[in-house]
């Protein structure tokens, strides 16, 4: 089972009346299980537009997206028999700054709002909320609190719990760690890793954080001007020489690794994935 | 007396929790100071107090000799310009030209001079060719540069960057940092509010905040290299510096290697 993009174009009209191509001939297959994907690329390259096609919030102007037995194309939205809501339950989309979307009196009500809308009983929705709040690393005492009394990082977690409570197969997060300090960022990335590893869900992160891409993602998609220009392993991406033409940057760990090799001929076996691995490798090389 | 003098500043959003507690610090003209701290350390509260968006519970803020109050607010806002985190929340004009003009209109600058300033400062941030563009045709980094041009055109003495790089892609970020560096070299006073060490490395001085208080106030080099201090502030050492400390603690590597790691962290 997968989400398949077939020659997808998405065109929109700007205020100046001109047409712009936000997605241009995108072909892509995303498995519903076991993926940890990072979607990267400069501002305006089409990342968010692509994400919104993954749960039919946007539909292609040309081409098709196939998922869950449906084929979504330009004509889909005009056909009253096609129900898109089930897709939106299966592909959970967490927008940028989700904390601005919290609105209920208590965290519990906020988290159960989504599943209740899909006809889940109050009892079942509450059970899901308890599980979800735990998954995002908060305890059940938060359920009775007002979402507005929480810190930025806690609010982000609560809004993610709200999506998890709908039990989606795929979780798509648009710049989930922006605005968080180093500890908050790391804690949240570990939450996504756990969701991916323990629940087997596919996770897709849209991010500018190359360190996170390198340490966490199994697959990386690079977008430029509406095209997917790279689809492969992060380690291969970051060892290419020309990623700056895509406005990407090399992760810190690799920057230091490469610099020490160039300057002092200090070579570590393999490529360290994170700080800890680099520190250990350098320790061994120098000892 | 320094250009900005903050004395015993305290602030609370409600009766229970204190956001800032007894903060004192000063900024000299031409300095680049970073206010560094974890989420909830009080850094954004401090920036809002500085430009009069919040009113202190106690303590005082002096800018260029004026004590901040309702009567002096307009004088102070003519001296400190602010660039916020989210590029989309601060673009008010229909086009780049209108956006830069907005602040000037508020200052009742004559039309002829307004046109000159828009030209001058849009060139300075390399956005002159974009004057007729609309915000949706710009990248986040370009919008931030327009915001800078808007502040520069008002000829404030100080520019405050409140996490202004945090939403940009890597290219936009490094470009914005270069602009800050250049403005500072040309004599501009810069305050950056951030939790990102990479934004703080270029500044002269760092004020480290923790739980609403000043934990340390020292040269950037001293603070960035102080592992224990940064851990206490719930922040992380830059990677080359962490490597440097690890090697030093275990007597590995030589001075050349350690100095190189220092330089590497500055170029981050």
Descriptors:
heterodimer; A: alpha/beta; 4-stranded antiparallel beta sheet; 10 helices; 37% helix; B: 268 residues; alpha/beta; Rossmann fold; 6-stranded mixed beta sheet; 11 helices
Structure described in brief:
The complex is a heterodimer of chains A (287) and B (268). With 287 residues, chain A is an alpha/beta fold.
Strand order of the largest sheet of chain A: 6-7-8-3-9-10
Largest interface: A-B, 38 and 39 residues
- The third-level CATH topology of chain B is Rossmann fold
Low-confidence stretches of chain A: none
How many runs of DSSP E, i.e. beta strands of chain A? 10
Helix content of chain A: 25-40%
- What is the assigned CATH homologous superfamily of chain B? P-loop containing nucleotide triphosphate hydrolases
| Spatial strand order of the main sheet of chain B | 6-7-8-3-9-10
**Under the CATH scheme, which class of chain B?**
Alpha Beta
* N-end to C-end Cα span of chain B: 34 Å
Major β-sheet annotation of chain B:
6 strands, mixed
CATH architecture of chain B: 3-Layer(aba) Sandwich
- Supply the helix-strand structural class of chain A: alpha/beta
Helical/strand content category of chain B: alpha/beta
Strand runs of chain B, count: 10
Shape of chain A: globular
Strand content of chain B: 15-25%
What would your notes on this structure say?
The complex is a heterodimer of chains A (287) and B (268). Chain A has 287 residues and is of the alpha/beta class. Helices cover 37% and strands 23% of the residues of chain A. Chain A contains ten helices and ten strands. In chain A, strands 6-7-8-3-9-10 form a six-stranded mixed sheet, sandwiched between helices. A four-stranded antiparallel sheet of chain A has the order 2-1-4-5, with helices on one face. In chain A, a hairpin with a 5-residue loop joins strand 1 and strand 2. In chain A, helix 3 packs across helix 4 (122-135) and helix 4 (122-135) crosses helix 5. The longest helix of chain A has 18 residues, at 182-199. The N and C termini of chain A lie far apart (50 Å). Chain B has a single domain (4-220), classed as Rossmann fold (3-Layer(aba) Sandwich), CATH 3.40.50.300. In chain B, the strands form two sheets. Chain B has a six-stranded mixed sheet, with helices on both faces. A four-stranded antiparallel sheet of chain B has the order 2-1-4-5, covered by helices on one side. Chain B is globular. With 268 residues, chain B is of the alpha/beta class. The mean pLDDT of chain B is 91. At the A-B interface, helix 6, helix 9 and helix 10 of A face helix 6, helix 10 and helix 11 of B.
């Amino acid at each position: 089972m997968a989400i398949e993009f077939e020659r997808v174009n998405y065109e929109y009209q700007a205020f100046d009346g001109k047409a712009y191509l936000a997605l241009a001939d995108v072909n892509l297959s995303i498995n519903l299980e076991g993926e940890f994907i990072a979607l990267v690329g400069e501002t305006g390259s089409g990342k968010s537009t692509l994400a919104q096609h993954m749960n039919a919030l946007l539909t292609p102007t040309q081409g098709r997206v196939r998922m869950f037995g449906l084929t979504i194309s330009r004509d889909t939205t005009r056909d009253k028999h096609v129900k898109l809501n089930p897709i939106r339950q299966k592909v959970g989309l967490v927008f940028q700054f989700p904390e601005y979307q919290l609105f209920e009196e208590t965290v519990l009500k906020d988290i159960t709002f989504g599943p209740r809308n899909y006809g889940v009983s109050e009892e079942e929705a509450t059970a899901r909320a308890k599980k979800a709040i735990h998954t995002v690393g908060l305890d059940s005492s938060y359920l009775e609190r007002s979402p507005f009394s929480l810190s930025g990082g806690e609010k982000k977690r609560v809004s993610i719990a709200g999506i998890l409570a709908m039990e989606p197969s795929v979780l798509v997060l648009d710049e989930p760690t922006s605005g968080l300090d180093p500890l908050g960022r790391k804690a949240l990335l570990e939450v996504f890793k756990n969701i991916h590893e323990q629940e087997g869900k596919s996770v897709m992160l849209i991010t500018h954080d190359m360190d996170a891409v390198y340490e966490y993602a199994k697959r990386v998609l690079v977008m430029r001007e509406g095209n997917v220009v790279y689809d492969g392993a992060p380690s291969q991406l970051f060892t290419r020489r020309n990623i700056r033409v895509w406005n990407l940057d090399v992760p810190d760990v690799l920057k230091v690794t490469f610099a020490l090799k160039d300057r002092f001929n200090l070579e570590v076996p393999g490529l360290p994935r994170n700080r800890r691995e680099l520190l250990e490798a350098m320790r061994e090389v120098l000892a | 007396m320094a250009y900005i003098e903050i004395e015993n500043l305290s602030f609370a959003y409600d009766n229970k929790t204190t956001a800032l507690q007894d903060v004192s610090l000063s900024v000299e003209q031409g300095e680049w100071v970073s206010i560094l701290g974890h989420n909830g350390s009080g850094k954004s509260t401090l920036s809002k107090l500085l430009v009069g968006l919040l009113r202190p519970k106690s303590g005082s803020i002096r800018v260029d000799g004026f004590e901040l109050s309702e009567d002096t607010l307009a004088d102070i806002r003519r001296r400190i310009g602010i660039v916020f985190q989210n590029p989309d929340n601060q673009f008010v004009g229909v086009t780049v030209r209108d956006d830069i003009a907005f602040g000037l209109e508020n200052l009742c600058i004559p039309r002829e001079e307004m046109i000159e300033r828009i030209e001058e400062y849009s060139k300075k941030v390399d956005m002159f060719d974009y004057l007729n563009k609309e915000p949706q045709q710009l990248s986040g980094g370009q919008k931030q540069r327009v915001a800078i041009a808007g502040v520069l055109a008002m000829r404030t003495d100080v520019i405050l960057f409140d996490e202004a790089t945090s939403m940009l892609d890597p290219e936009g970020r490094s470009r914005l940092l270069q602009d800050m560096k250049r403005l500072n070299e040309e004599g501009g006073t810069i305050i950056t509010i951030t939790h990102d060490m990479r934004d703080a490395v270029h500044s002269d001085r760092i004020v480290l905040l923790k739980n609403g208080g000043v934990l340390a106030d020292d040269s950037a080099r001293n603070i960035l290299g102080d592992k224990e201090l940064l851990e206490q502030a719930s922040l992380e050492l830059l990677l080359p510096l962490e490597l440097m400390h690890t090697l030093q603690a275990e007597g590995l590597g030589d001075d050349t290697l350690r100095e190189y790691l220092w330089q590497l962290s500055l170029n981050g």
